[in-house]
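Request:
Um, any thoughts?
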Amino acid sequence: MERKTRVNYRGKEVDALEMDFESKEAWSEYKVSDGTVVRLKAVATNIIKVLNEYDDTGKPIYIVQSSNVLGVVAPPKKGGPTGVIK
């Protein structure tokens, strides 16, 4: 259920709606030169639509609050721990 709220937008308090949303969050993966794979995704925690405010092209303004989630998969070091618990 959408909830009315007020937010600071461009230095003034304006009316807004906290929006309900569904998500499908995918990982972005980056393989770095040492073979490690760094996985990153942004997880939206709140989406707010600013009422009666638009960007320069006429599109509505949304504020997205999010957290970043980071995962690292490093290759085992030769002769070192493998990361496997026995």
About this structure: The chain has a mean pLDDT of 90. Residues 52 and 58 are 11 Å apart (CA to CA). The first strand starts at residue 3 and ends at 9. The beta strands are 3-9, 12-19, 28-31, 37-54, 60-73.
